Amino acid sequence: MREKESMKKITAIQAQRKDPNRVNIYLDGEFAFGLARITAAWLQVGQTLDEAKIAQLLEEDAHERALRQALLYLSYRPRSEAEIRQNLRKHAIPEAVIEDTLDKLRQERFADDSQFARAWVENRAAFRPRARRLLALELRQKGLTDEVIHSALQGVDDEALAYEAASKTVRRLRVQERSVFRKKLSDFLVRRGFSYSVVTAVVERLCQEIYPEGELHSMDNEETS
So what's the pLDDT on residue 177? Predict the structure, then answer.
């Protein structure tokens, strides 16, 4: 008798209006829970479920929901494992399911902190160059370990990054007087986290490249006249 009482009959399976990839399961005439279509694919109206099977379905659904959410989150841009974990927590995914999901993502190379860190550094170097210390801070904020950060920053040259950053902004400063040019370019590089010695070397190099030597002498005379 107790075994029969624990069994519940599926009386309806209805697609959810807001998410066509999920269905609502009704047991004994009442809404019971929602499932991903792939999890509910083998269910049929009239089928009976015991408590163990219901628990199994809900667990499978939690894993499917977590994986879908993680892949959606990754579709916008690469993420660190810490970012993925935080996002899944926001969606009330159980911790055990989160860890299983991260394992799957690692196996498929969707989650790889070392690769993420290298890509972050390369992207910054190409579009918004900044000092190694700021890059390290950004990566640390992404939840990466010191070991991963150190590996990603190997071979990164602050002076080369500073020159690249300065070269991208130098055109709009070229119309300024040399003293103003130096000041604005120096301030710009300091905001990007570069040290005094690096800033000084790069600003001097760009001054020599942009202003002919004669022009520099002429400007010096104007400034002292």
Answer: 76
